[in-house]
Write a structure and sequence with these properties.
This protein is of the alpha/beta class and about 500 residues long. It is built from 15 helices and 23 strands.
Length: about 500
Amino acid sequence: MGAVDWFARAREAAFDGRALIDGVRRDAAGGETFVKASPIDGRTLGPVARGREADVDAAVKSARAAFADSRWAGKSPASRKKLLQRFADKILAARDELALLETLDMGKPIQYSLSVDVPSTARTIAWYAESIDKVYDEIAPTPASALALITREPMGVIGCIVPWNYPMIMAAWKLGPALATGNSVVLKPSEKSPYTALRLAELAVEAGIPPGVFNVVPGYGGEAGEALALHMDVDAIGFTGSTRVGRKMLEYAGRSNLKRVYNELGGKSAFVVFDDFANVERAAKAAAGSLFFNQGESCNAPSRVLVHESIAERFVEIVAAEAPKYAAADPLDAGTEMGALVDEGQLRTVMGYIEAGKREGARTVAGGSRAREASGGFYVEPTVFDRVDNGMTIAREEIFGPVMSVIRFKTEAEAIALANASSYGLQASVWSDNVNRAHRVARALRAGTVHVNQYDEDDITVPFGGYKQSGNGRDKSLHALDKYTELKTTWLRIEPE
């Protein structure tokens, strides 16, 4: 079989932007739409339903009805497992279609949509399907005169609000545990990347998941997202996005029914390289690869690279040499390593941070400019700043673009202090050949995940989430089941004869 011509497929692609509520595609109640353009070259992909309060209300009512009549929650664990596994199989069977939608929608290279996003999405659904009949309830150690049962029960209706950088993967991290435990879901994808979420919902229906169990309402955050978070009949919100909007989610919960809110928010991850790590080249290449992957549009991107002063010159030299290998190119080219930023607004944001870095005195050693402007798309050169102070704007604020800040340190204590001097605490890494130092520093870093001598190795079996303003709760692993279930104690008195 020859190589796929993704450019030809893109020209032939069809886009359905209508909502999916109660198993049926439908226009927004008010008939409104917004136009979705591709960040690759500005081409119009099509109109998308502009969901508002009425659409969210219809979706929540559908989800509540599905929960109330037990068409999903009432199925045996084995039955839910089988249907979710079929859903995962459908995702894999639609691999090329979903990958193309993801790439056209948000600009990531097609090779990674194919090799990372689609398989990871399917695996997450399949893994939670397998978890259904592996997690047991409990019996408390009560006196012989009583029997206390501790059982997990689904919450009911879960609202999921996901970002645009990994649309399918982020949706699956919430859908997997929410559906596995018997809940119904209303998903609000980002207006910047709605298409794969809508197609996933269709595939779920095709797999046999009952109508109403998984609904998708596209629209703007301040309209559909706010309506979902404020809805009085939503039992919990699973949100991934910015810390600014995460604060709003907590506010909306307080203004409505005190629904549970699980926020997975931003990051400014520290990548700490000590002078006792012998393979400086490996560390430098890992920093570049991890940061420039997905155009730097990753909440866990290692954007603060802390390097011991004795090896900093060598480290920076290697990173600067690596940067051109990630030069922005057309995402539909199978060889592209770094694609387009999601839209013009994100391009302006990233370029604003680059200008701030220059203005505040950081030294530009690679990139620093917009790229491929004639394409009509939104591209930025992979950019590396050296001699960054931890107080600079580019070291404090989440950029969400391919911009690395190299900060030099002298001692272990200084490295720990610099790494922890952030309002975020999502991920970090320690590079050291001294096992005592590696353990010591890893324990001292205030982050949800600390990598040692690698970065961003990952698996669905481990939790993902952060400390401080990086959010609360955890996606992935069995721990995610806790977010979408209630614990019930049933106490039985055992009378003597």
